[in-house]
Amino acid sequence: xxxxxxxxxxxxxxxxxxxxxxxxxxxxxxxxxxxxxxxxxxxxxxxxxxxxxxxxxxxxxxxxxxxxxxxxxxxxxxxxxxxxxxxxxxxxxxxxxxxxxxxxxxxxxxxxxxxxxxxxxxxxxxxxxxxxxxxxxxxxxxxxxxxxxxxxxxxxxxxxxxxxxxxxxxxxxxxxxxxxxxxxxxxxxxxxxxxxxxxxxxxxxxxxxxxxxxxxxxxxxxxxxxxxxxxxxxxxxxxxxxxxxxxxxxxxxxxxxxxxxxxxxxxxxxxxxxxxxxxxxxxxxxxxxxxxxxxxxxxxxxxxxxxxxxxxxxxxxxxxxxxxxxxxxxxxxxxxxxxxxxxxxxxxxxxxxxxxxxxxxxxxxxxxxxxxxxxxxxxxxxxxxxxxxxxxxxxxxxxxxxxxxxxxx
Length: 409
Known about the structure:
This protein is of the alpha/beta class. Helix content is about 40%, strand content about 10%. The strands form two sheets. It has a six-stranded parallel β-sheet. The protein is flat and about 80 Å long.
């Protein structure tokens, strides 16, 4: 008997063991599947927009959970933004003497610095292509700010722009494929919108990225783009998360170069709760008093000046002071992406007479909410060289991306 093999080694016994092992494996797989499904149901899933925020933002997760609150459609924005980063291409016409007013901006400082930064950023970015056949849009690099800096009159500026565009039309085939609908210009100077009046097709078809986007002048909303007017470099660091220091209800100081500013100063300059001055704050009073007052104020009044726009809006955002926009028919920058009502007060100019009561009617809870969301919006209203994700340059590029679908004949 000792020399006989064990019964377990019989074919029937081996088949029984294999079936048992298969059954155990199947049961194990089913258990793991049930555990995984239960884990998925119980674990909170990040919405799509927060996934994109976590992927592209440098300072998350600490800020990511709040970031989406300022957008109209966060899921759409973050998904489209990522696609823009991968696909969008712009061709820059090489023509024109850089020593005059073509190709290069005048400077990257002052109240028209947004124009200069865009001219520089587009060349530093991944969006530029040297192949016009790969381009989604075409940038016409003529600087109205630089022309004004050289003392060129508005009338001559119009002629220069017209001659330049017509030379491009004669030399290249790209304009005539769309009659300029896939071309864009960038200007921050006050006369920038009017500088293209010599070419009706520019006004009608081309995209004009401008700092003075008013519905009641030549600006065409939904086609043209509002460029934020940013006075850089900022004199002091950004403000925010400092609500306990903001003891002044409202603040404005500046020139009375518009009807709304004259009314604002006349009605409120002697008020004890509103810090309203009918002139700029003198430097003799102290160093950077104007900028430091932003740090101590809850609401910063931003009336339109000679145009609807004002660099005071982006100053307010930078220093953490909730902007109160008093400018009719102003197509606010990035208005179709961010909801300005969530981090500012947008009033009619006729509300200036009720300004104090409107500001005092904002509860502390509401103010804290506006302030926190304002801090989240700050990165969209700053220029950098080279540009960084979600800064002013990338937001302008996203606006252009939304307008780049055209039929080319």
